[in-house]
């Protein structure tokens, strides 16, 4: 009977139900993704108010990231045991409750415990949002469902720092968590109204305790290592070395166990499918580059160009303009074309944007900052939709939640890895360039000698002149370092195009349509 029920698809939603259902799912995703970045700029306020150091305050970010990374790949298993609609509803309600607890937190340990709960319950929300949207739209309009999902996923990380900075400056830091309460309540009410009779079949699969334990160990170790590596000077720290070893060993055991377990907690056999592997890797590395640069650019603007946090956020804001305008268009043309062409064009646009940024100087003007940001929105409109379509192409319906959860898990991990690598690489390249510039600071260099003489003529003492030169060299070194990373990002995006073309999306009335048909 259960098998027969599993084969009967729910009909697509229509009219007002479709609109309300799409808004409900999108609000939940926006709230979720927003919380991955909204707290970043508020750490000084949180640390000061709770009487802890900034280093301790960063655990507010780390605790959420670790719990979230662990729970995302469990989506498939939890869906089997609870049902996708019940699990999605539970995620929203518990997210609202944990957000309320975060805002009430009187101490750092209480706040960290609330953030762990918040990150854990947030995990299944994004993969299930894809599943619910694909199952709600008619097969021919499935790309439109993905475009709605992509817009919220792309805009929220940009809006997070802007909104978080404004709230911290003008109200108080607890409100970066309280804003989730009305949004979550609306999303929960609308979700239950529209989807309560559209749940998936529940299967009481036994829990893979060993796999779950290994997952928690290796993901937790890796995430803490990535978040704390820069502060601890990476592998010169015993703590980082131990965390790395634990992560590698636990990962090795995890892979072997999951591939041989009868009921694995994470379905690694999905990587045996060409479309899933190629699409997931291309999407995840591309997202890691995007997210790494999303952190790097505002950081550089604030530390070296003199922008405030709000000004740096506003420079990033126009990226959403073309992303919002063009995502629905991408959704419309996707069924009539090969998604690999759209993804290739997207990656080329990203490469162009990062190449343009690699030409920046310390005297960069606002227009030069805004133009690549605007153009990047074009690339973002064709980034998620075709790659998600390729990744889910050809999968049977009962594997969609597990595939979406695993793909999102890899993407989120690559986002964290990208952030850590970019910050560390920028420091390294800045030091290298500063050493090269400082090597030119000698009396045998006529340009340097003339500059020091001019400073002396302007009334600077020799020590002041040398100090000013060092300040200018530091700023220039940071500029050259960030340019190196922009240029490298452009090259990697071009190289990733090869991964896109190892896939062979199944054509069944449109690739995203095929995914939707599978979801049905």
UniProtKB/TrEMBL annotation:
Q: Does the keyword DNA-binding apply?
A: no
- Mind listing the UniProt keywords for this protein, alphabetically? Cell membrane, Membrane, Transmembrane, Transmembrane helix, Transport
Q: What is its main location?
A: membrane
Q: Which InterPro entries match?
A: EmrB-like, MFS, MFS_dom, MFS_trans_sf
Where in or outside the cell it occurs: the entry states: Cell membrane
TM region positions: 15-34, 87-110, 116-134, 146-167, 173-195, 207-226, 238-260, 281-301, 307-329, 341-357, 369-392, 485-503
Q: Where is the Major facilitator superfamily (MFS) profile domain?
A: 21-508
* Keyword field contains Lipoprotein: no
Tell me the membrane topology, using the record's own terms: Multi-pass membrane protein
PROSITE patterns annotated for this entry?
MFS
Family to which the UniProt record says this protein belongs: Belongs to the major facilitator superfamily. EmrB family.
- Tell me what this protein is called: Multidrug export protein EmrB
What species was this sequence derived from? Paraburkholderia metrosideri
């Amino acid at each position: 009977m259960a098998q027969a029920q599993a084969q009967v698809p729910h009909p697509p939603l229509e009219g007002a139900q479709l609109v309300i259902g799409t808004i409900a799912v999108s609000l939940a995703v926006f709230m979720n993704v927003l919380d991955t970045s909204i707290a970043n700029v508020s750490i000084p306020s949180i640390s000061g108010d709770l009487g802890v150091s900034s280093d301790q305050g960063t655990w507010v970010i780390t605790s959420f990231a670790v719990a979230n990374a662990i729970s995302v790949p469990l989506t498939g298993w939890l869906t089997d045991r609870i049902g996708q609609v019940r699990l999605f509803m539970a995620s929203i309600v518990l997210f609202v409750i944990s957000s309320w607890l975060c805002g009430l937190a009187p101490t750092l340990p209480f706040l960290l415990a609330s953030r762990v709960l918040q990150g854990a319950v947030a995990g299944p929300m994004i993969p299930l949002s894809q599943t619910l949207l694909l199952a709600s739209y008619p097969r021919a309009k499935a790309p439109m469902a993905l475009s709605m999902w992509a817009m919220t996923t792309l805009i929220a990380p940009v809006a997070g720092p802007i909104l978080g900075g404004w709230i911290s400056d003008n109200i108080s830091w607890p409100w970066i968590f309280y804003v989730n309460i009305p949004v979550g309540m609306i999303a929960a009410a609308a979700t239950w109204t529209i989807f309560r009779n559209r749940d998936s079949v529940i299967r009481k699969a036994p829990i893979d305790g060993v796999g779950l334990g290994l997952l928690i160990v290796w993901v937790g170790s890796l995430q803490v290592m990535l978040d704390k590596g820069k502060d601890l000077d990476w592998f010169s720290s015993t703590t980082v070395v131990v965390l790395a070893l634990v992560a590698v060993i636990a990962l090795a055991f995890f892979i072997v166990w999951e591939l041989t377990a009868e009921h694995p907690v994470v379905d690694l056999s999905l990587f045996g499918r060409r479309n899933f592997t190629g699409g997931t890797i291309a999407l995840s590395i591309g997202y890691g580059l995007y997210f790494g640069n999303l952190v790097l650019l505002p950081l550089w603007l604030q530390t070296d160009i003199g922008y405030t946090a709000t000004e740096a956020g506003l420079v990033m804001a126009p990226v959403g303009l073309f992303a919002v305008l063009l995502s629905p268009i991408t959704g419309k043309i996707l069924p009539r074309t090969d998604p690999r062409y759209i993804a290739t064009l997207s990656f080329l646009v990203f490469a162009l944007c990062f190449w343009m940024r690699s030409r920046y100087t310390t005297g960069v003007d606002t227009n030069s900052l805004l133009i690549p940001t605007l153009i990047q929105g074009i690339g973002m409109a064709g980034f998620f939709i075709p790659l998600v379509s390729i990744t889910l192409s050809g999968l049977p319906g009962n594997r969609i939640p597990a595939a979406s959860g695993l793909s999102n898990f890899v993407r989120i991990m690559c986002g964290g890895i990208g952030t850590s690598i970019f910050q560390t690489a920028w420091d390294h390249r800045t030091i290298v360039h500063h050493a090269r510039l400082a090597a030119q600071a000698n009396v045998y260099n006529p340009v340097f000698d003339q500059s020091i003489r001019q400073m002396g003529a302007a009334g600077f003492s020799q020590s002041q002149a040398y100090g000013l030169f060092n300040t200018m060299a530091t700023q220039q070194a940071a500029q050259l370092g960030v340019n190196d990373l922009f240029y490298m990002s452009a090259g990697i995006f071009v190289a990733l195009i090869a991964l896109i073309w190892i896939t062979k999306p199944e054509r069944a009335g449109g690739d995203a349509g095929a995914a939707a048909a599978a979801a049905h």
